[in-house]
Design goal:
The complex is a heterodimer of chains A (about 90) and B (about 270). Chain A is α+β, with helices and mostly antiparallel strands and about 90 residues long. Chain A is built from three helices and five strands; from the N terminus they run E-E-E-E-H-H-E-H. Chain B is an alpha+beta fold. In chain B, a hairpin with a 2-residue loop joins strand 7 and strand 8. Chain B is globular. Classes of the chains: A alpha+beta (about 90), B alpha+beta (about 270).
Amino acid sequence: MSSCPTVGDSFSAAEEVAVVESVKAASDVYAPISGSITDVNKNLINKPELINSDPFGAGWIFKIQPDDESELEGLLSYEEYEALMPDEE
Amino acid sequence: VSRPAATALFFTSPVRYADGVRLQEALVAARQAGAIPDVVLFLEHAPVVTLGRRGRQNFLLAPPDQLARQGIDFHLASRGGDVTYHAPGQLVLYPILQLGGAEADSRGYLHNLEEIALRTAADFGVAAHRRPGKNGAWTEDGKIAAIGFHLKRWVTMHGLSFNVSLDLRGFDLIVGCGLVGERVSSLQRLLGDRCPRGARRARPHGRPRRGRARPAAGPRRRKSSNDWKNRRRNFQRLEICAPGLNVILSECLPEPHERRATWHAL
């Protein structure tokens, strides 16, 4: 994790929140919904591999307080996202 | 005139690093919006040291003000990777590609950038290889190509630098890619008189592929330089073939001499 937000920062949906670096690639992370940051996972700064090893647990990136909970309906569930992924070769 | 699926721009004089970043950022935004096709920039930078996301000041062996006295720019870069050095005689490849879709794959893209460097070296009879955990292209004499890129909504920026004939003493100012004790090499060092004159003579091999890594194919024959010359078109035709691109170039590089380039459709 090479760049992360500060608690209290506000973001609009789809705005850049953080940057994750893997080997030679830096990738932006976007806010899934509008809201304000309530917590940031500082463990990722030294242990970014948690994002891969435990994405649904210790690999969380930030917590955000939604401005508008109805925006949540626009997000994908795990199953819906999985269905978009190509089959592993 | 048909619109190209992708456009390659070859800059014919060195580009200042800050200008290159400004241009790439504008191209990325336009690519994200679907206003332009994929674009690949080929250029040489004026001398510059850049620190990537993981770059640490202690990989700089000379402070920025000392670099400035030597006519070397210094910049923080949004790409992945550590510290590196660019200068005329090094070919820089900046693909602005939309990797989005079902095949989007950051690691596969990294692999493909490496593949371009390996095949380009092979085109000149230089054996280069990958090293686990040390991305880039390596020869028996040291690292010949470095990689660092940035993904913004699956559109790529930054990319690959390939050492052709630059003065390698520039790398003495840094600990290249944060790799202590590793050597840096170039086609010039490896080939001597057989080195192509000027970085632009050593164009990287083909177009970076999107998507998943593919197994390496055998060496392909390089197109003759005549073929490249024949494909050159008057730069003004770019206005017709890729109108958005022309506007972005003019906005980002206001001085005509800065955007001196040739282009062709890929």
